[in-house]
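hey m, so remember when u said the tokens were messed up on ur end? i reran from scratch. heres the input so u can diff it against urs
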Amino acid sequence: MKRALVSVSDKRGVVELAGVLHTLGVEILSTGGTYSAIAAANIAVKQVSAHTGAPEILDGRVKTLHPKIHGGLLGRDTPEHRREMEANGIVPIDLVVVNLYPFEATIAKPGTTLEAAIENIDIGGPAMLRSAAKNHERVAVVVDPDDYAWVAQALQAGGLSAGQRLQLARKAYAHTSAYDASIAAYLSAIDDSAADTRTQAPARRDLPDTLSFQWRRLYELRYGENPHQKAAFYADARSPLATTSHRPTIAAAEVLGGKQLSYNNILDLDAALGLCLE
């Protein structure tokens, strides 16, 4: 691994990861606040604008939308692609560490204007994630700070395997999918008249025109409602009930022993837990 692009909104652990990359001799490219954080830790880092030869423009709306970035991500390790990249002054980027503008956190704040919401729609970030994830055969893509530790460990041990890069690509596409779903839900919950009052907080319907959910498989079940049916237990991937809630839930319960659960077992357990919590 020779080159990494690191540009994150959530900066948890990013300096430590950059330190590992630096010790491995990886050139780090970055932007904005991430660049400042890494540079402040005395870790060698290069501005993306210096790498591309193009300045950040349009109030930062255009930073990474450049052939030297996306060509570096999408170029495959084939003789034809290597020749074309060299002819155009494009060098490979092997690792992308990106998470996105906090759109959901922004629109959750009371009084958020349409203008503020729109400015927190990330464009360059999802584009880089999708480019890197598409080319996961060669490029590793990391969206979750909770993955930094094992990714760093793998790099120190010699590199990420093909299977690990595929695992990270899956997560990247799930991340961008959920991100776009939240934007679509927000825009479809406000009236067209909001376009004429962008500096005001628009009224939002409780029931948007477009609503998408993303569910995470927890485990397969022995069977569905009937023995001939296949089934699995899924939970809302973004719900605190399945992650950080202190309220007991079946989704957060651990199966300690016995047979694999069935759909009817889940229903019975949920009913029993509900009675206990009354």
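this time it looks ok to me. Strands lie at 3-7, 27-30, 46-47, 95-98, 140-142, 215-220, 232-236. if urs says something different then somethings off w ur setup not the seq
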